[in-house]
Amino acid sequence: MLEQEFPPDSLEAKVVDIIKTCYDPEIPVNIYELGLIYAVEVTPKEGEDGAAAHVIMTLTSPACPVAGSLPPEVEEKIRSVPGVTQARVEVVWEPPWTLQMMSEAAKLQLGIF
User: Which domains does the chain have, with CATH numbers?
Assistant: First the structure.
């Protein structure tokens, strides 16, 4: 799971909040709590209003049925955050996702101890 902590009113925190509205349709836990988000970077655009958001994420497996639809959904939602004018989601496979990357809340919700 993402180890970064952001100030509550920061643009990064708002991006994380919107990411928490995205769910893997096969697992009733949001993708942030599942540990699928590896990094969130928000950079002000020089000479322009707004900021660019770059999110590095993975999926539960390369054969994930939503591999083609989930990253664009995340990108679209990030773009809806006020102050974000550009969003890019990068899917990576290293490190591979494991159950240990889930938050304690997600594990409890899924009955994984």
Answer: 11-98 (3.30.300.130)
